[in-house]
Amino acid sequence: PAPYTLVLLRHGNSEWNQKNLFTGWVDVGLTDIGKAESERAGELLAEQGVLPDVVHTSVLKRAIVTANIALEQADRLWIDVKRSWRLNERHYGALQGLDKAETLEKYGEEQFMQWRRSFDVPPPPIDDDDEWSQVGDARYAGLADDELPRTECLKDVIARMMPYWEGPLADDLRAGKTVLVAAHGNSLRALVKHLDGISDDDIAGLNIPTGIPLVYTLGEDLMPLKPAEYLDPEAAAAGAAAVAAQGKK
Ligand code: DG2
To answer: Is residue 224 assigned to a domain?
Structure first.
């Protein structure tokens, strides 16, 4: 029976977060800063007694490795793991691989923010022969061609994430498991939008910091019984402000 515990964790600082490049579905690793953030995330879980029974990740290594490092730190590497492309970052279309500051300069603040934060306007699609396209990537071999995104807005992410929320995640929560979801800035914004009932307009102002566990206590209907809490609220506020300011020099 409820209450159920859900922990959301954005991966630690990635190589392309550090270089300030649009990442999306490009599979980049963590930086040393990102690895340290992941260790800290695991320490916070252990210290505060939030011990996951199962972990769900995207199929991108920055989320997978973050979860592994955090779970190792909390001595929970043994738990069950499930991965899905439905938890992947938002596909950033033709912006993948571009520098955020240069893009802001070239297209202006309004266009830049529309691409980063609008609810329903996707960036231009990526070409299938682009260096940063996912066409032909073995991990997506099970997807029909029209399921493999060439770009996504947040609305598209919600549409492909919700079946995973209502399926495997809901099943594990209802089984009474403490569920850890290791994912991404925009795939987690999609989930938080649903859980916190944030409007299409207001979600633009919500940013998720890297590497800090966000804990939800859910009722029988799998909706929050109280506001979610970051396990390190001060670091989370500073981290979210840094994401909001990204691109600006
Ligand atoms: C970032 C988010 O994704 O970027 O795709 O560039 O969480 O995997 O590092 P993540 C990317 P913004 O939408 O915040 O610019």
So the answer is: no
